[in-house]
């Protein structure tokens, strides 16, 4: 599913003009993106939680050359599905 598909679904369910639906979807994703950039978590009730996690540096290995390479510290986004979402997926 693409962002355009989400816009179309919102358009069909809400009935607002398509441009307004696109603005709403863009606004939601921008808010999520900026909140995660600030390092805050986002909890969507009944769906799940997005968190930003800091990973430390570590030594990795190039699989082709077997040469060790240092992997720098970074921040990654993790998602933990809610029990409600897990149950809904299992029913399908």
Comma- or semicolon-separated keywords:
single chain, 92 residues, alpha+beta, HU Protein, Chain A, three-stranded antiparallel beta sheet, 3 helices
Indicate the proportion of strand residues: 25-35%
Rg value:
19 Å
Number of beta strands: 5
Mean pLDDT: 95
SSE pattern, N- to C-terminal? HHEEEEEH
CATH level-four homologous superfamily name: IHF-like DNA-binding proteins
Write the CATH architecture name.
Irregular
Question: Could you say what the CATH topology is called?
Answer: HU Protein, Chain A
Kindly report the spatial arrangement of strands forming the biggest sheet: 1-2-5
What is the C-level CATH assignment?
A: Few Secondary Structures
Compile the SSE list and pairings.
Elements: H1 3-14, H2 18-37, E1 42-44, E2 48-55, E3 58-61, E4 68-71, E5 74-81, H3 83-91
Characterise this structure.
The chain has 92 residues and is α+β, with helices and mostly antiparallel strands. The chain has one domain: IHF-like DNA-binding proteins (HU Protein, Chain A). Helix content is 45%, strand content 29%. The protein has three helices and five strands; from the N terminus they run ααβββββα. It has a three-stranded antiparallel β-sheet with strand order 1-2-5. A two-stranded antiparallel sheet has the order 3-4. The longest helix has 20 residues. The mean pLDDT is 95.
